[in-house]
Structures are given as C-alpha cells and as structure tokens.
Design goal:
The structure is a homodimer. Chain A is an alpha/beta fold. Chain A contains ten helices and ten strands. The first copy, chain A, has helices at about 5-20, 35-45, 75-85, 95-100, 115-120, 125-140, 150-165, 195-200, 200-215, 220-230; strands spanning about 1-5, 25-30, 50-55, 90, 105-110, 145, 170-175, 235-245, 260-270, 270-280.
C-alpha cells in the first residue's frame, strides 16, 4: 500500500491511473477506522479497480466547541487495517496541505443541509461538502462510497454531485452495528462503561418504529410517540432530534407512504450519537 | 464542429477524449461572441489538443433587475464564428439542462469576490464560481481560458481552483480592444451612437494612470485624482467604482509597489462598463 501525503502527489497518481483506464474507488474517512469503514472498502473493491482511502480529520466541519481536538486518532492502527483490507492507496494529508492560510472557497448545499444535524450543527455540512469536493478533485474517483449511518451526509453529497455535475457515482454502504446493535462510530470511544449500555436506546427505538410499521402503523405522530417512549426509558439520554423525513428530500412527513428516513441524534452523557433507519410501507 | 446540448453527452465526449490522452481546452462564454472571445480560442489552441467553447447565459450570476432577459444573443452567428475559429466542440445547454428545479448547491468565494464588482453586484460571483465549477465537471478541461477584461473574475476563479484543488490550469488572455481603445464586450451593443464615444473615457483614464506611473507617480491618491479627472470630463459618465488593489489579493493599496490592479466600473447611460489595467513600477 502506498501512502500519499501531498495533494500534488495524489493528483498525479490519480491521473496516471485514470489514463490507464482503471476505475478509482474512494472511501473518505476521518480515520480511527472500524468495521463500518472496512465494509465500505469491501464495497468499493467490488465496484472499482483500485481503492483509495483518505484519512483527514477535517477542521472546517467541526464547530467551535466541538470535538476537533479530541477526535480519536490512531494512524498506525489505521494503516494496518488498510493494508489488511487491501486498500491500494492511503491519502493522508495534514491540515496545511489541505487548507491555505487564506483559504476562502466553500461549497454549500442550501436545502437538505439545513435540517436535522444541520440545524444543531450550523456550518457542519458546508465543511463536509467543501472537503468532499476537494477530495473528489484530488483523487478523481469514478465511484465514492459513504456509509448510510450518516444518512443526511449521504443525501447532501448526492445533491452536491447532482447539482455540480460531478463525474462521480455515489455508492452507499449499509449501517454496520456492534453485536448488541449499537451503530459503529469512531465517537463510540467517548462512551464510558456505564454509558455504553444506555446508548442502545437509539437502536431499540428504531426497532420499535420498524415493528410498529410492520404491524400497520402509518401515522408519524403515533410512531414518534413509540420512539420517544423507548428513549425516555433511559433517563440519561437527551434527545437532540427525532425526525421523520422524506428519504430523498428530507422534508418532514406525517404519514409513512414513500420511503421515510427516521433519523435521531441523542446525547448520552457528553457524547452525541446518531442513528437512522428507512421506514417503508410494504 | 460538434454541437453538444446535454450534460451527459458532453461528459461522455470529454471522458473519451481524456482517456485517449488528448488535452482539453475550455473557453467558457455567454455567447454573442466577439474578437475578445476568439482570441481566447486561439490561446486555447496553442495549449490544448482540442478546444471546447461553451455558450451559456448563466441566470444565477445575474441579479434581480439586471440584464438577463435582454443580454444579447445570436447563436447562429456564434456557431459560424466557432467553426471559423476551429472550435472542436460547442457546448450549448439550456437552463433546464444546467439547473434542476430544486437546485441547491453553490460554490462561493468569500474574500476576493466581496470587493469591486462583488460589492455592487452581491451574489454575482457566487453564480460565476458555481457555473464554472459545473462547466469544469462537465467538460473536464486540462486548461481553461478566461479574459483579463474580467480581472476580478479571473482572480476569483484562480482562487476557486486553488482552494478546491481543481485539476485545471487557468490561462488568462489579454484585453482585446476596438481600434479606438474600447475594451471589447458583448454589452457594448447596449451603447447608443451618442454614448459610444463617451465610453472611451474608461480607456483614456487608464492611459492617464499608466502615463503617470511611467513618469514616476507612486501615490495612489495622486493617480486616482488623475483618473477621476479624465472620467469627470464626460458629464454622462457615472462612476460605480475606481479602485487600486493588489493584483493578487485584491486588497486596496495606497502606493504602487507590487503589481496593482486599477479596476473601474462606469455607467454610460444605462450601460455598465468595466475596464482595467495592471500598474507596476518598473
């Protein structure tokens, strides 16, 4: 596996691969890799001739007061995992390689990015779309793989690709969970031993919603009451949002008709966790 | 010459050319072509294996109340000029091909685009950077050629390319003028027969500034007084701005030391004209 730390080096490498007709797959990450990331690498493998994984803890998508400084990092372990997974090229730039001191250009999505996590983290998605646009220009992927765990991020990036005519196909990988159901996330590391079991209320509340829909429930008000009840059973859980939105447009809905994204953000102690599922009437 | 009206068709064509190793040059225009545009085509020819010229009157860079509806158009004449100039592919999409009804993604430069024309036309450069980003993704050029007549646009696009790591080299073509000195512009068509000679005050004021610098003047206050005097000699000319800024950062300067962009926007009757020159102490 080749490790590339410069933009120029990565671009030259990508151009060479493209000219040779090989299809490039990109898995953008912030590192501290887990089985969720590795499932995206495996998915990229099936769709591309070579896989580039990027590790960059992107400062512009963290708000003041968020966990930029403490975000977990373990580059040596990440490298081993990448080699094991058959990653061809690791792109691992530092901040100054990615952002000039007088950096002044942003890519901003103005609709889908303003709800859900965008409402509680204003500016977050502007940082995400900007850095993903940069990574696309640097790695020149034919396909790029993102995890459905960050459902809103997936929709916002798909919209960016559509509206800016980026020549990249976005491929989504399913949520990968711990054996007990907790969605894998680098931020799970923040959970204390006491908090860890409490975090299961996210998945449990999604299970409850899925069961209700299976049994015929279609009213979002009814299903939401069920979801809130499951989370309320854990007194230490503080809800940031529980939203039912159209799975494509992210517009709030009141009935389950077309596929509906049920998305949650819940704080367990100091840790903000997200999870989601897509509900559809059969 | 091939005329391509769809994004998908243009992208497929570009990919094919890229894979065959040919270097693509792009000349983005709003049509109603004149010798200024054609000089950019000739410049592109010297730097690329094939030349794509795009014609798209981009609605998102016009402000409400500006001349979007009346912007001059003559596609048949434009086609003939392109064939004559040896353009390989004309990209000529319509509005609905370029913008979905629920379009929601913009590329915005936050520093250089806020002064000069950006101050009097807020939102204009956001439209420019967004559509140029789209054109780059659609045409996939190795080089793109812009005219120095739109000096600020050139700087803003160069900054976009730098900050988003776009794999495109920006090439600038010099201002092309009518025999009497008026900078060529599609908007010159708006000038009435009486207004046309009055419009020469722009170039004359730049000449005056260049002459003063040649004679040793270095104080921007002194040179600006000279520029304003020339324009004031035409009572029908209304100044939008006369600015002396660093040629790279567009930050106002008070002395001619590093290269200084002297940029003007002046209204002659209902027509807003721009012109500029770069002043440098020898």
């Amino acid at each position: 596996m080749r490790i590339e730390t410069t933009v120029k080096g990565m671009q030259q490498l990508a151009l060479r691969e493209k000219r040779s007709g090989r299809k490039i797959g990109l898995v953008p990450t912030m590192g501290f890799l887990h089985a969720g990331h590795m499932s995206l690498v495996a998915l990229a493998r099936t769709r591309a001739d070579l896989v580039v994984l990027s590790i960059f803890v992107n400062p512009t998508q963290f708000l003041p007061g968020e966990d930029l400084a403490s975000y977990p990092r373990d580059i040596e372990r990440d490298k081993d995992l990448c080699i094991e997974a058959g990653v061809d090229h690791l792109f691992y730039p530092d901040d100054s390689e990615m952002y000039a001191a007088d950096y002044s250009v942003f890519v901003e999505e103005m609709a889908l990015s303003k709800v859900l996590c965008g409402a509680s983290r204003p500016g977050h998605f502007r940082g995400v779309t900007s850095v993903v646009a940069k990574l696309f220009n640097i790695v020149m992927p034919d396909i790029a793989v993102f995890g459905q765990k960050d459902a809103q991020q997936c929709r916002v990036i798909q919209r960016m690709v559509r509206d800016l005519n980026m020549p990249v196909e976005i491929v989504l990988g399913p949520i990968i969970r711990e054996p007990d159901g907790l969605a894998m996330s680098s931020r799970n590391k923040y959970l204390s031993r006491n908090e860890r079991p409490r975090a299961l209320c996210l998945r449990r509340s999604l299970d409850a919603a899925e069961a209700m829909v299976k049994e015929g429930a279609r009213s979002v008000a009814d299903i939401k009451a069920g979801v809130l009840a499951v989370i309320a059973a854990v007194p230490e859980a503080r809800i940031d949002y529980v939203e039912f939105v159209d799975n494509e447009t992210l517009v709030p809905v009141s009935r389950i008709q077309r596929p509906v994204l049920l998305a949650l953000a819940v704080r367990i102690g100091g840790t903000r966790l997200i999870d989601n599922t897509v509900l559809a009437s059969p």
